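Internal tracking record. Fields below are filled automatically when a chain is submitted to the structure queue. Please do not edit lines marked as system-generated. If the sequence contains nonstandard residues, flag them in the REMARKS field before resubmitting.
Queue: standard
Priority: normal
Entity type: single polypeptide chain
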Amino acid sequence: MLLAAETRPAGGAAIGEVILATGIGLGLTALLLGLVFLHRTRRSTVLTRIGTRLGAATGVPAWVALPTILATLSLLTALLGMLWDISLHIGVGRDEGPLANPAHFLILFGLFGVFAAGVLACSMPLEEKPGPAAVRFLTGWDVPIGGILLTAAGFYALLGFPLDDIWHRLFGQDVTLWGPTHLMLIGGAGLSIVGLLVLEQEGHGGLSTDDGDRKVGRTARFVRQASAMGGLLLGMSVFQGEYDFDVPQFRLALEPLMIAGAAGVALVSARLFMGRGGALAATAFFLVVRGGIALVVGPAFGEVVPTFPLYLGSAILVEALALVVPLSRRPLVFGAVAGIAIGTVGHATEWGWTRVTQTLSWNGDILVEGTLMAVAGGVVGGLLGALLASGLRRRLPAPAVARAVVVGSLAVLAAAVGNGLLATVPDDLDATFGIEEVQADPRTANVTVQLDPTDFVDEPSWVQITSWQGDGLVVTPLERTGAGAYRTTEPVPLHGTWKTLLRIHDGRTLTAVPIYLPADEAIGAEEVPAEDGLTRSAVPEKEILQRELKEDSPGWLWTASNLVVLFCTLILIAAISWGVGRYSRRASRCEPFPNSPADAPDDRPRIATGQA
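SYSTEM-GENERATED OUTPUT FOLLOWS
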């Protein structure tokens, strides 16, 4: 950080920073492996003593307690770092180097903590079989399924960090949350929660007294489960981060899909797994954490404040439906019905919430498509959430049914995302700008816009001017003054490193026109000046928002790299599905009767196991 370059690089970190980051990673790995070696060879009991003390307070074995606490704290650290990092990139643009960005340290140490938690969960059990679905690693060394899933997800997320630098060297800086390596970081961290949920279930032995109800473990366990399910909601909600900051680089119809999908997965699984109040408790955890991070990133750090979805309306719907729809034998039916409710009534509550919190709120332009996307996301999320809860409660449907639901849900999700990514750019749209200077130094101005043709937009999602990466963010919806004529409602910056552009989103059209762009020596770009009366043509938004992308990268390399990341992601999803399935089917053999949903009446005899 002290040796940051004068100009911000646009294609990967300096070699010195790469070496330093590699050294940090190797040092942390050596420390972790050293602890594991000392523990496995009985030369040290520090891990056992710490885990036992934590386990005494939480009612789980040492190999569950320590990794769970470590992973939870690490995920919260990484989430804070990620939202802070997004805010920094929106406010100031590229980093002077990856180690010059303090948020990157929180992300790096947080993700390493998740990976380390998985390794410890696999390494700490000594001379015991950790759970009914444990996997033989070496003779005398069995590892829990939850530990394997946690390690895999953590490693996948951590791998995204060095690959991100390679990606920038190949293709330049893609300043978007949805860059493939960024999605590795997000996806791995979010899916690690599933590993934590399985690990806790394994810690209770998979026996019939451990049915996930509040009657078992009472308040403490209910709070832990609410934290885990709330964490799952946090992880699934990160994907719409650009919308939370009012700088989305994709069509608005994608946001309802992602919000409903996250609600379906987390809230349906929370209600089925935890019982009454599960969905509301998970939502409460989400709101407390995201609200707290918003206060830290905004008022405390002085950066752009992230907003967040509400989810409260969907949680109330899920809880209410659980009182009507039979849960004991038809969790998938409940998931589908809850998904429809989330995608309609729950979607309507989020619609109102965006009017309060987002500058680029939802309007009639996405009324039909946005609702259909929300229903698709809600149903897919509800089905996957029902499968997850059924797996944790050892009541998965037949393998063929479970596989069909997973594959079908992913196919529908892929189709919906593909639809949301489809956008057109007009080849005949021009914009003429009038610059009414308000302040000369630093230069700010009111801007008027005249579109040609004048009837280009009908009922747009937005016609606005975004100014960003000049040490702040200004998103200004334009006021319509006539046919194709608009003006700003506040002055916009036209100086320094600010990038100011007109953005238009109407139906499937997503386009932009530059107003002012600074010169950028690192990418060989000249200044685009803001001049009164100048007419410019509309271009794809990506050409301006991701100005640093290299134009000379081979197209086949870009396609191949994206496909490799997609393939690895599908492997991780397959591993998660395998792990939940193995736990469910192996653990169900440990009791004469399978578990019913958490709050379903059950008068069957129980096996005394001594479990707390």
